[in-house]
Specification:
- The complex is a heterodimer of chains A (310) and B (301).
- Chain A is mainly alpha-helical and 310 residues long.
- Chain A is 75% helix and 3% strand.
- Chain A contains 14 helices and two strands.
- The relative contact order of chain A is 0.12.
- The radius of gyration of chain A is 25 Å and the shape is flat.
- The radius of gyration of chain B is 25 Å and the shape is globular.
- Chain B is 72% helix and 0% strand.
- Classes of the chains: A mainly alpha (310), B mainly alpha (301).
- Chains A and B meet through helix 1, helix 4, helix 5, helix 6 and helix 7 of A and helix 1, helix 4, helix 5, helix 6 and helix 7 of B.
Amino acid sequence: MQSPYERKRFRQTSLFAYRIILPSLVFILFFIAYPLLYSFIVAFKEYKYGVPTGKIIWFQNFIDIFTKSTVAPGFYNSLVVTMKFTLVAVVAVVVISLAIALLINQQFRGSGLIKVALLLPYAIPGAVSAVIWAWIYDPSFGVMNGVLNGLGIIDEYITVAADPRWALWAILFAYVWKFVPYSTFLFAAGLATIPSSVYEAARMDRAGSIRAFFKVTLPLLRPVLQMVLVIQTIFALVMHFGLVFVITQGGPGDATRTLAWLVYVESFTFTRFGRGAAMAIILALIMIVFIYLYLVVLNPERRLKRREAP
Amino acid sequence: MIFNTISGRRRAKKILVLLVSIVVLLYLLAPIYWVVVSSFQKEIALQDRPPHYFPSAEVFTTNHYYFIFTGVIPPNSTIMLQSMYTMRGTLVYPAIINSIIIASIVTIINVVVGFPAAHIFARYRFFGDRKVFLLLLATRLLPSISIVVAMYILLLRLDLLDTKLALVGIYSAITLPFTIWILRAYFHNIPVEFEEAARLDGCRYIRMMTKVVVPLARPGLIAAAIFAFMASYGEFVFATILTQTIRSQTQTAVLASLSQGMSTSRGMIAAAATLSILPPLLLAIVFRKHILEGLTARLGL
């Protein structure tokens, strides 16, 4: 039991603390929490030609998205595209960045150079990287065509961004370029904390380097791996927006029409704000489900701790 | 056969490391190299097959930059090229300035408002501290596309669409949780004793912050400031949807719309891209130590 003095102290500290954090909270409440709540109101409203009709239709927008014959097929397709992209992007980023992190961890001459080189794609704004890649993919001028042609892989210049077979992969390739560095830094930091004595012990046990990687490195990296998985999934679900906007505009057909892109098109091309907001909420829910899966289901220790807590 | 001996194996490993390093470096740097090189090539030369990987003096030109900065079409250009220089290209420079202004204000807000808040979260236990901190973290995970529709309608009503003010507010709200998060982790690595000593010497809060806490946390503060700047400089979703004219358009919005033009000069687009990646690249190279430390501070390592 706290003494009255302690309670008074606590109250004073609390008042003081809130005075300092208040400005930050005001920004977040006004520019994030309020629009978030408001998007529910928008999602419950009916819009015609960008103007609210004043009718509250509750969940009709959500029902339309899942059942209406003019909306649902496009929506389900966008879910498939989004999931495909997210799955491949997360796996690709994790594998490539872990490989580069292992490379840097060798501490050879020039590993510092790779670190600096990694910083560049990381620092370049996503939308600008999209412009750069659109330029590389360009069907008539693109350097990618020039290189592939020079190597004898293709005979004629190809249009990757306008080909339904390749468009999503074009987005993916550019995405991986932009987002590998960030995960690489996290993995490299994780690897740096593993003491070399652990590897020596593994070598004593005559474990080969591949075996050592799976039996020693990977288990010790699990916290970092988990964090990278969470961050990359969140990113992959939405951060491709700039790339899609610049490189393919959701096309050709619906080959790169992800859920994030669909939200944009519904809201700002067709000005169906209600339906767009409803899709945006669904996107946020998908993200929450993923985060929950990673944090709780994949981590039994945390679940145990939670039960012990009270 | 040489791979069977120990020294042979070591050499094979060295060669492998070298080869992989070259591939990695090429992958990371070639796209940037190509856009910079393209921006200095004549428009006609850009169509050549094979492309000029290492451009010679014949294809070199600074016309694209000249047009972006002056709006004047170089007198010796063909009619074809004249039609490709859309006037939107002249918006690139003011848009970069807009981006820098907005990002700088957001950075200042992050330092003035976010830094003390992070200090509070790291050092004090107060009513609801955990819950408020979790709320902050949760807002970090929210995708911007999820609130942009509602934000558009709200700003339309408040008559704040197409203003720098709106972007500054939104970017501050997006970056503050991140700043507080990494600085809080940073404070955990700084011993609290210095602050206690300052308190015992009778320092008031503001004096203690400026004289003791800021100098101790300087590297972390710099890293947080860089992150805030880069995030708001490069933001795209809000920038492209909530702005309409050069009054508030940032470089990402202008560049994305510029690259949509099918007949726009490709050399000019490359020049515009080169210009707009310049500020963050310079920051990244100058402050690379701070950025690398800051990225890993969050891991609690």
